[in-house]
């Protein structure tokens, strides 16, 4: 009796089942992490500038002031590099997996904070691709909004590369599962519109 109650946990929500066909896996566009890199560089420059220009004016012994400034600069650089590496790891974990039956959204909020949501294609009502602003248009990324009927939470995937292309894949899969298509889901490679 105990063997009948055991559940096979080898297939989790963030994996593709054997009866599904993966249509695409979307990672966030690199432009989203570029903003974090620029903020880290600006903060590092500000910290180093304050250390090298203010410490000598506060501490009378110039050699000792530059020793403290060098120590502070080393700690600041190490801290910035560690912060950038950890932020990059967290950012790269954000994914949207589209199969012929489901959409799985994996959002990583921090090192130990992750949200995985799955939506059946039957529940998809509308898919919207939004590109607003000069950077989104130039670099080919935007927001992908997947709306559902009823009480289910809508999916909102920011920094999606080529959002119109992936919206079309989702809509084609939805039409096929509802029987409104000719039976084939075609995933044609789109021209690379990003310049990164």
Strand elements, count: 7
Largest sheet: 4 strands, antiparallel
> Taking all residues together, what is the mean pLDDT?
84
Count of helical regions:
5
Strand order of the largest sheet: 1-2-3-4
Q: Globular, elongated, flat, extended or rod-shaped: what is the shape?
A: elongated
Alpha-carbon Rg, integer: 24 Å
User: DSSP strand (E) fraction?
Assistant: 25-35%
Helix content: 40-55%
- Derived from helix and strand composition plus strand pairing, the structural class reads alpha+beta
- Please report the distance between the alpha carbons of the first and last residues: 57 Å
Task: Please characterize this protein's 3D structure.
The radius of gyration is 24 Å and the shape is elongated. It is built from five helices and seven strands. 43% of the residues lie in helices and 26% in strands. The protein has a four-stranded antiparallel beta sheet with strand order 1-2-3-4. It has a three-stranded antiparallel beta sheet with strand order 5-6-7. It has a domain at 35-90. With 196 residues, it is of the alpha+beta class. The model is unreliable at 1-6 and 192-196 (pLDDT under 50).
């Amino acid at each position: 009796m105990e063997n009948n109650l055991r559940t096979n946990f080898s297939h989790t929500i963030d994996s593709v089942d054997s009866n599904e066909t993966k249509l695409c896996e979307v990672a966030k566009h690199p432009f989203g992490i570029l903003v974090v890199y620029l903020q880290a560089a600006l903060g590092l420059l500000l910290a180093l500038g304050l250390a090298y220009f203010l410490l000598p004016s506060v501490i009378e012994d110039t050699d000792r002031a530059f020793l403290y400034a060098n120590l502070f600069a080393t700690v600041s650089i190490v801290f910035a590099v560690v912060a950038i590496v950890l932020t990059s790891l967290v950012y790269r974990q954000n994914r949207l997996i589209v199969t012929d039956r489901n959409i799985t959204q994996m959002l990583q909020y921090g090192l130990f904070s992750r949200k995985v949501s799955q939506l059946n294609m039957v529940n998809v009502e509308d898919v919207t691709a939004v590109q607003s602003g000069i950077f989104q248009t130039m670099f080919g990324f935007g927001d992908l909004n997947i709306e559902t009927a009823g009480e289910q939470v809508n999916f909102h995937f920011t920094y999606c590369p080529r959002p119109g292309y992936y919206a079309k894949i989702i809509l084609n899969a939805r039409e096929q599962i509802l029987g409104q298509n000719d039976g084939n889901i075609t995933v044609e490679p789109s021209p690379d519109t990003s310049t990164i």
